[in-house]
Write a structure and sequence with these properties.
By secondary structure, the chain is α/β, with parallel strands linked by helices. About 35% of the residues lie in helices and about 15% in strands. It folds into 2 domains: about 270 residues, Rossmann fold; about 90 residues, formyl-coa transferase, domain 3 (2-Layer Sandwich). It is built from 17 helices and 11 strands. Strand 1, helix 1 and strand 2 form a beta-alpha-beta unit. Helix 1 packs across helix 7 and helix 7 crosses helix 8.
Protein backbone atom coordinates (compact mmCIF):
# COMPACT_ATOMS: atom_id res chain seq x y z
CA UNK A 1 0.00 0.00 0.00
CA UNK A 2 1.40 3.36 -1.03
CA UNK A 3 1.85 5.84 1.81
CA UNK A 4 -0.10 9.09 1.43
CA UNK A 5 1.96 12.00 0.11
CA UNK A 6 2.30 14.87 2.58
CA UNK A 7 1.04 18.19 1.22
CA UNK A 8 3.57 20.88 0.44
CA UNK A 9 4.10 23.82 2.77
CA UNK A 10 2.22 26.11 0.37
CA UNK A 11 -0.54 23.69 -0.62
CA UNK A 12 -3.73 25.60 -1.39
CA UNK A 13 -1.90 28.74 -2.47
CA UNK A 14 -2.78 29.88 -6.00
CA UNK A 15 -0.16 31.69 -8.06
CA UNK A 16 -0.40 33.24 -11.52
CA UNK A 17 3.00 33.26 -13.24
CA UNK A 18 3.14 35.79 -16.08
CA UNK A 19 6.92 35.87 -16.26
CA UNK A 20 9.58 34.74 -18.69
CA UNK A 21 13.26 34.07 -18.14
CA UNK A 22 13.28 37.01 -15.74
CA UNK A 23 11.02 35.56 -13.08
CA UNK A 24 10.27 31.92 -13.95
CA UNK A 25 12.38 30.72 -11.02
CA UNK A 26 10.19 32.69 -8.60
CA UNK A 27 7.15 30.69 -9.70
CA UNK A 28 9.11 27.45 -9.51
CA UNK A 29 10.01 28.10 -5.87
CA UNK A 30 6.30 28.34 -5.06
CA UNK A 31 5.39 25.28 -7.16
CA UNK A 32 8.04 23.13 -5.48
CA UNK A 33 6.46 23.96 -2.12
CA UNK A 34 3.06 22.74 -3.26
CA UNK A 35 1.38 25.90 -4.54
CA UNK A 36 -0.82 25.63 -7.63
CA UNK A 37 1.25 27.75 -10.00
CA UNK A 38 -0.30 28.52 -13.39
CA UNK A 39 2.11 29.62 -16.10
CA UNK A 40 0.27 32.07 -18.37
CA UNK A 41 1.73 32.18 -21.89
CA UNK A 42 0.89 33.98 -25.13
CA UNK A 43 -0.20 31.83 -28.10
CA UNK A 44 3.42 31.50 -29.32
CA UNK A 45 4.69 30.57 -25.86
CA UNK A 46 7.24 32.44 -23.77
CA UNK A 47 10.67 33.03 -25.31
CA UNK A 48 12.48 30.51 -23.11
CA UNK A 49 10.66 27.68 -24.92
CA UNK A 50 12.81 28.53 -27.91
CA UNK A 51 16.08 28.69 -26.04
CA UNK A 52 18.65 25.90 -26.00
CA UNK A 53 20.39 23.73 -25.18
CA UNK A 54 17.79 21.25 -26.35
CA UNK A 55 17.31 17.57 -25.72
CA UNK A 56 19.16 15.69 -28.44
CA UNK A 57 20.24 19.07 -29.84
CA UNK A 58 16.88 19.25 -31.65
CA UNK A 59 14.99 22.49 -31.10
CA UNK A 60 11.39 22.35 -29.97
CA UNK A 61 9.03 24.15 -27.57
CA UNK A 62 9.20 21.30 -25.04
CA UNK A 63 12.82 20.25 -25.54
CA UNK A 64 14.73 23.06 -23.85
CA UNK A 65 16.47 22.10 -20.61
CA UNK A 66 16.21 25.56 -19.03
CA UNK A 67 12.47 25.82 -19.70
CA UNK A 68 11.88 22.28 -18.44
CA UNK A 69 13.64 22.96 -15.16
CA UNK A 70 12.36 26.46 -14.44
CA UNK A 71 8.74 25.50 -15.09
CA UNK A 72 8.57 22.01 -13.65
CA UNK A 73 5.73 21.67 -11.18
CA UNK A 74 3.57 24.31 -12.86
CA UNK A 75 0.43 23.98 -14.92
CA UNK A 76 0.21 25.88 -18.19
CA UNK A 77 -2.43 28.01 -19.87
CA UNK A 78 -2.47 30.05 -23.08
CA UNK A 79 -4.18 33.45 -23.05
CA UNK A 80 -4.02 36.06 -25.78
CA UNK A 81 -4.02 39.29 -23.78
CA UNK A 82 -4.37 41.24 -27.00
CA UNK A 83 -7.93 39.93 -27.24
CA UNK A 84 -10.89 40.76 -24.99
CA UNK A 85 -11.54 37.08 -24.29
CA UNK A 86 -8.00 36.54 -23.05
CA UNK A 87 -8.12 39.60 -20.80
CA UNK A 88 -11.47 38.52 -19.37
CA UNK A 89 -10.06 35.08 -18.58
CA UNK A 90 -7.03 36.61 -16.86
CA UNK A 91 -9.33 38.84 -14.80
CA UNK A 92 -11.26 35.78 -13.60
CA UNK A 93 -8.05 34.01 -12.66
CA UNK A 94 -6.62 37.05 -10.88
CA UNK A 95 -9.84 37.37 -8.86
CA UNK A 96 -9.10 33.97 -7.32
CA UNK A 97 -5.30 34.09 -7.04
CA UNK A 98 -3.21 34.73 -3.94
CA UNK A 99 -0.22 35.96 -5.92
CA UNK A 100 0.28 37.35 -9.42
CA UNK A 101 3.92 37.52 -10.58
CA UNK A 102 4.74 39.32 -13.82
CA UNK A 103 7.79 40.54 -15.69
CA UNK A 104 6.27 42.78 -18.36
CA UNK A 105 7.74 46.19 -19.09
CA UNK A 106 6.40 48.81 -16.66
CA UNK A 107 2.90 49.90 -17.57
CA UNK A 108 2.10 46.93 -19.83
CA UNK A 109 -0.56 45.32 -17.65
CA UNK A 110 -1.97 48.71 -16.72
CA UNK A 111 -2.59 49.48 -20.39
CA UNK A 112 -4.47 46.19 -20.62
CA UNK A 113 -6.73 47.16 -17.74
CA UNK A 114 -4.92 45.39 -14.92
CA UNK A 115 -3.86 48.26 -12.71
CA UNK A 116 -3.66 47.80 -8.95
CA UNK A 117 -7.03 49.41 -8.29
CA UNK A 118 -8.84 47.11 -10.73
CA UNK A 119 -7.10 43.99 -9.42
CA UNK A 120 -7.78 44.84 -5.78
CA UNK A 121 -11.40 45.76 -6.48
CA UNK A 122 -11.98 42.16 -7.50
CA UNK A 123 -9.50 40.62 -5.06
CA UNK A 124 -8.46 42.84 -2.12
CA UNK A 125 -5.99 40.26 -0.76
CA UNK A 126 -4.09 39.77 -4.01
CA UNK A 127 -0.32 40.24 -3.88
CA UNK A 128 1.06 41.57 -7.16
CA UNK A 129 4.79 41.21 -7.74
CA UNK A 130 6.55 42.84 -10.67
CA UNK A 131 10.06 41.75 -11.67
CA UNK A 132 11.74 44.08 -14.14
CA UNK A 133 15.33 45.02 -14.99
CA UNK A 134 15.27 48.38 -13.16
CA UNK A 135 11.98 48.59 -11.29
CA UNK A 136 8.72 50.36 -12.08
CA UNK A 137 10.04 53.90 -11.63
CA UNK A 138 13.24 55.86 -12.08
CA UNK A 139 15.39 56.99 -15.01
CA UNK A 140 16.14 53.43 -16.23
CA UNK A 141 12.66 51.97 -15.69
CA UNK A 142 11.89 51.61 -19.40
CA UNK A 143 15.36 50.52 -20.50
CA UNK A 144 15.75 47.05 -21.94
CA UNK A 145 18.33 44.76 -20.36
CA UNK A 146 19.45 41.15 -20.35
CA UNK A 147 21.28 39.13 -17.72
CA UNK A 148 24.70 40.35 -18.89
CA UNK A 149 23.85 44.05 -18.69
CA UNK A 150 22.20 43.53 -15.30
CA UNK A 151 25.33 41.80 -14.02
CA UNK A 152 27.37 44.75 -15.28
CA UNK A 153 25.16 47.50 -13.87
CA UNK A 154 24.70 45.57 -10.63
CA UNK A 155 28.46 45.24 -10.12
CA UNK A 156 28.88 41.46 -10.23
CA UNK A 157 30.50 41.48 -13.66
CA UNK A 158 33.24 43.72 -12.29
CA UNK A 159 34.17 41.07 -9.72
CA UNK A 160 34.48 38.14 -12.13
CA UNK A 161 37.58 37.21 -14.08
CA UNK A 162 41.31 37.91 -13.92
CA UNK A 163 42.60 41.22 -12.60
CA UNK A 164 44.54 41.99 -15.78
CA UNK A 165 41.90 40.85 -18.28
CA UNK A 166 38.30 41.49 -19.30
CA UNK A 167 35.52 40.78 -16.76
CA UNK A 168 33.80 37.40 -16.94
CA UNK A 169 30.07 36.88 -16.38
CA UNK A 170 28.92 34.42 -13.75
CA UNK A 171 27.31 31.36 -15.34
CA UNK A 172 23.63 30.57 -15.06
CA UNK A 173 21.91 33.95 -15.49
CA UNK A 174 22.59 34.94 -11.91
CA UNK A 175 20.91 38.34 -12.26
CA UNK A 176 17.64 36.71 -13.31
CA UNK A 177 17.83 34.15 -10.51
CA UNK A 178 18.71 36.75 -7.87
CA UNK A 179 15.67 38.79 -8.88
CA UNK A 180 13.46 35.70 -8.66
CA UNK A 181 14.76 34.85 -5.19
CA UNK A 182 14.22 38.36 -3.87
CA UNK A 183 10.76 38.38 -5.43
CA UNK A 184 9.81 35.06 -3.84
CA UNK A 185 10.88 36.15 -0.36
CA UNK A 186 9.12 39.51 -0.60
CA UNK A 187 6.00 37.88 -2.02
CA UNK A 188 5.85 35.36 0.82
CA UNK A 189 6.06 38.16 3.37
CA UNK A 190 3.25 40.03 1.61
CA UNK A 191 1.11 36.87 1.39
CA UNK A 192 1.49 36.40 5.14
CA UNK A 193 0.21 39.92 5.72
CA UNK A 194 -2.61 39.40 3.23
CA UNK A 195 -3.71 36.22 4.98
CA UNK A 196 -3.71 37.85 8.41
CA UNK A 197 -5.09 41.29 7.52
CA UNK A 198 -6.94 40.66 4.26
CA UNK A 199 -5.04 43.33 2.33
CA UNK A 200 -2.76 42.59 -0.60
CA UNK A 201 0.34 44.51 -1.57
CA UNK A 202 2.43 45.60 -4.53
CA UNK A 203 5.99 44.23 -4.72
CA UNK A 204 8.40 46.00 -7.08
CA UNK A 205 11.63 44.07 -7.73
CA UNK A 206 14.52 45.57 -9.67
CA UNK A 207 16.86 42.86 -10.95
CA UNK A 208 19.72 45.35 -11.00
CA UNK A 209 19.17 46.19 -7.33
CA UNK A 210 18.88 42.49 -6.51
CA UNK A 211 22.35 41.92 -7.98
CA UNK A 212 23.74 44.80 -5.90
CA UNK A 213 22.27 43.33 -2.73
CA UNK A 214 23.70 39.89 -3.51
CA UNK A 215 27.33 40.98 -3.95
CA UNK A 216 28.55 39.15 -0.86
CA UNK A 217 30.59 41.74 1.09
CA UNK A 218 31.42 44.16 -1.73
CA UNK A 219 28.81 46.68 -0.57
CA UNK A 220 30.08 46.49 3.01
CA UNK A 221 33.64 47.10 1.83
CA UNK A 222 32.50 50.33 0.18
CA UNK A 223 30.34 51.51 3.08
CA UNK A 224 32.52 50.48 6.03
CA UNK A 225 36.05 50.73 4.68
CA UNK A 226 35.67 53.12 1.76
CA UNK A 227 37.34 50.62 -0.57
CA UNK A 228 36.15 49.10 -3.83
CA UNK A 229 36.38 45.33 -4.11
CA UNK A 230 38.28 44.10 -7.15
CA UNK A 231 38.37 40.71 -8.79
CA UNK A 232 40.91 38.17 -7.59
CA UNK A 233 40.76 35.69 -10.44
CA UNK A 234 44.23 34.17 -10.92
CA UNK A 235 45.54 35.80 -7.74
CA UNK A 236 45.42 35.28 -4.01
CA UNK A 237 43.21 37.66 -2.06
CA UNK A 238 45.99 37.47 0.48
CA UNK A 239 48.68 34.86 0.95
CA UNK A 240 47.02 31.53 1.67
CA UNK A 241 43.58 32.45 0.34
CA UNK A 242 42.77 31.75 -3.30
CA UNK A 243 42.52 29.17 -6.06
CA UNK A 244 45.53 26.89 -6.54
CA UNK A 245 46.40 24.39 -9.25
CA UNK A 246 46.88 20.76 -8.34
CA UNK A 247 47.61 17.55 -10.23
CA UNK A 248 44.14 17.11 -11.73
CA UNK A 249 42.61 20.59 -11.59
CA UNK A 250 42.24 23.26 -8.92
CA UNK A 251 41.28 23.67 -5.28
CA UNK A 252 40.08 26.66 -3.27
CA UNK A 253 41.96 27.26 -0.02
CA UNK A 254 41.03 29.73 2.73
CA UNK A 255 43.84 29.63 5.28
CA UNK A 256 45.79 32.89 5.48
CA UNK A 257 44.15 35.71 7.43
CA UNK A 258 40.84 33.85 7.80
CA UNK A 259 38.99 33.00 11.01
CA UNK A 260 41.23 34.94 13.42
CA UNK A 261 44.20 32.92 12.10
CA UNK A 262 42.98 29.60 13.54
CA UNK A 263 42.89 28.11 10.04
CA UNK A 264 46.39 29.40 9.39
CA UNK A 265 47.79 27.73 12.48
CA UNK A 266 46.24 24.43 11.42
CA UNK A 267 47.68 24.92 7.94
CA UNK A 268 51.18 25.56 9.34
CA UNK A 269 50.91 22.37 11.39
CA UNK A 270 49.83 20.44 8.28
CA UNK A 271 52.78 21.65 6.25
CA UNK A 272 55.18 20.86 9.11
CA UNK A 273 53.78 17.34 9.54
CA UNK A 274 54.26 16.76 5.81
CA UNK A 275 57.79 18.20 5.97
CA UNK A 276 57.01 20.41 2.97
CA UNK A 277 60.24 22.05 1.76
CA UNK A 278 60.39 25.70 2.79
CA UNK A 279 57.27 25.54 4.96
CA UNK A 280 59.22 26.36 8.14
CA UNK A 281 59.03 29.99 7.05
CA UNK A 282 55.27 29.95 7.66
CA UNK A 283 55.90 29.73 11.42
CA UNK A 284 57.42 33.24 11.47
CA UNK A 285 55.23 35.81 13.29
CA UNK A 286 54.73 38.05 10.23
CA UNK A 287 52.51 35.38 8.70
CA UNK A 288 49.91 36.24 11.34
CA UNK A 289 49.83 39.86 10.20
CA UNK A 290 47.03 40.70 7.74
CA UNK A 291 49.03 43.56 6.19
CA UNK A 292 51.97 41.27 5.45
CA UNK A 293 49.73 38.62 3.87
CA UNK A 294 48.58 41.17 1.29
CA UNK A 295 52.09 41.95 0.07
CA UNK A 296 53.29 40.60 -3.29
CA UNK A 297 56.28 38.98 -1.54
CA UNK A 298 54.08 37.00 0.84
CA UNK A 299 51.81 35.84 -1.98
CA UNK A 300 54.77 34.78 -4.12
CA UNK A 301 56.39 32.87 -1.24
CA UNK A 302 53.18 31.06 -0.40
CA UNK A 303 52.54 30.11 -4.02
CA UNK A 304 56.09 28.82 -4.45
CA UNK A 305 55.94 26.58 -1.37
CA UNK A 306 52.33 25.40 -1.35
CA UNK A 307 52.01 25.45 -5.13
CA UNK A 308 54.68 22.79 -5.56
CA UNK A 309 53.09 20.67 -2.81
CA UNK A 310 49.61 20.94 -4.35
CA UNK A 311 50.77 20.11 -7.88
CA UNK A 312 51.98 16.72 -6.66
CA UNK A 313 48.53 15.81 -5.28
CA UNK A 314 45.00 15.39 -6.55
CA UNK A 315 41.94 17.42 -5.62
CA UNK A 316 40.59 14.47 -3.65
CA UNK A 317 43.82 14.07 -1.65
CA UNK A 318 43.97 17.75 -0.78
CA UNK A 319 40.28 17.87 0.07
CA UNK A 320 40.62 14.88 2.39
CA UNK A 321 43.59 16.49 4.15
CA UNK A 322 41.69 19.73 4.59
CA UNK A 323 38.74 17.91 6.15
CA UNK A 324 40.99 16.10 8.63
CA UNK A 325 42.69 19.36 9.58
CA UNK A 326 39.44 21.34 9.61
CA UNK A 327 40.78 23.85 7.11
CA UNK A 328 38.43 25.42 4.52
CA UNK A 329 39.58 23.66 1.34
CA UNK A 330 37.36 22.55 -1.50
CA UNK A 331 37.90 21.06 -4.96
CA UNK A 332 36.87 23.10 -7.99
CA UNK A 333 34.52 20.58 -9.58
CA UNK A 334 33.75 20.11 -13.24
CA UNK A 335 30.09 19.59 -14.26
CA UNK A 336 30.71 15.84 -14.60
CA UNK A 337 32.26 15.71 -11.13
CA UNK A 338 29.26 17.49 -9.65
CA UNK A 339 26.93 14.85 -11.12
CA UNK A 340 29.13 12.11 -9.61
CA UNK A 341 29.63 13.85 -6.25
CA UNK A 342 29.30 11.33 -3.39
CA UNK A 343 28.06 14.08 -1.09
CA UNK A 344 25.28 15.16 -3.46
CA UNK A 345 24.39 11.51 -4.11
CA UNK A 346 24.11 10.86 -0.38
CA UNK A 347 21.86 13.88 0.03
CA UNK A 348 19.73 12.82 -2.94
CA UNK A 349 20.21 16.26 -4.42
CA UNK A 350 19.69 15.27 -8.05
CA UNK A 351 16.20 14.00 -8.76
CA UNK A 352 14.47 12.58 -11.83
CA UNK A 353 13.01 15.27 -14.05
CA UNK A 354 11.50 15.24 -17.50
CA UNK A 355 12.31 16.94 -20.80
CA UNK A 356 9.87 16.15 -23.59
CA UNK A 357 8.98 12.84 -21.95
CA UNK A 358 12.55 11.72 -21.34
CA UNK A 359 13.80 11.28 -17.78
CA UNK A 360 16.84 13.40 -16.96
CA UNK A 361 18.64 14.37 -13.75
CA UNK A 362 17.66 17.77 -12.37
CA UNK A 363 18.73 19.71 -9.28
CA UNK A 364 16.49 18.99 -6.34
CA UNK A 365 15.55 21.08 -3.33
CA UNK A 366 17.78 23.92 -2.11
CA UNK A 367 16.46 23.22 1.40
CA UNK A 368 15.02 20.34 3.45
CA UNK A 369 11.60 20.30 5.12
CA UNK A 370 10.60 17.16 7.01
CA UNK A 371 6.86 17.59 7.51
CA UNK A 372 6.07 19.33 4.20
CA UNK A 373 8.79 18.10 1.84
CA UNK A 374 9.89 19.65 -1.43
CA UNK A 375 8.42 17.96 -4.46
CA UNK A 376 8.56 18.41 -8.23
CA UNK A 377 4.96 17.42 -8.83
CA UNK A 378 4.86 17.35 -12.63
CA UNK A 379 6.95 18.08 -15.74
CA UNK A 380 6.91 21.55 -17.23
CA UNK A 381 3.65 22.05 -19.12
CA UNK A 382 3.38 21.74 -22.84
CA UNK A 383 2.08 24.90 -24.48
CA UNK A 384 -1.52 25.38 -23.36
CA UNK A 385 -1.66 21.91 -21.82
CA UNK A 386 -4.02 22.82 -18.98
CA UNK A 387 -5.98 25.70 -20.49
CA UNK A 388 -9.36 23.95 -20.61
CA UNK A 389 -8.97 22.34 -17.19
CA UNK A 390 -7.98 25.56 -15.44
CA UNK A 391 -10.72 27.67 -17.02
CA UNK A 392 -13.26 25.07 -15.90
CA UNK A 393 -11.79 24.69 -12.40
CA UNK A 394 -14.00 26.24 -9.67
CA UNK A 395 -10.85 27.01 -7.67
CA UNK A 396 -9.72 29.26 -10.52
CA UNK A 397 -12.77 31.32 -11.31
CA UNK A 398 -15.54 29.12 -12.65
CA UNK A 399 -17.67 30.40 -9.78
CA UNK A 400 -17.70 33.68 -7.85
CA UNK A 401 -14.45 35.59 -7.24
CA UNK A 402 -12.82 35.89 -3.84
CA UNK A 403 -14.30 39.35 -3.22
CA UNK A 404 -17.80 37.96 -3.58
CA UNK A 405 -17.04 35.02 -1.30
CA UNK A 406 -15.54 37.33 1.34
CA UNK A 407 -18.57 39.64 1.28
CA UNK A 408 -20.90 36.69 1.86
CA UNK A 409 -19.09 35.60 5.05
Amino acid sequence: MTEPVAPGALAGLKVLDLTGELGNYCGKLFADLGADVVLVEPPEGIASRRRGPFLGETAGPDRGFAFAYMNAGKRGIVLDLGEAEGRAALARLAARADLLVESFAPGTLERLGFDDAALWAANPALVRTSITPFGQTGPFAHYAADDLTLLALGGLLYLGGYKDDLPVAAYGEQAYQAASLFAAVASMAAIHVAETKGQGDRIDVSAQEAVVMALENAVQFAELEGTVRTRYGGDQRQAGAGVFACRDGHIVLLAGGIGANRFWLRFVEWMADEAVPGSATFAAPEWLDAAFLKTPAAKATFLDIFGRYAMARTKAELYAAGRVRKIPLAPVATPAEILDSPQLAYRGFFVPGSVDGRTVAMPGAPYMLSETPWRMARPAPRLGEHTAAILADPAWGADEPRAARSAAR
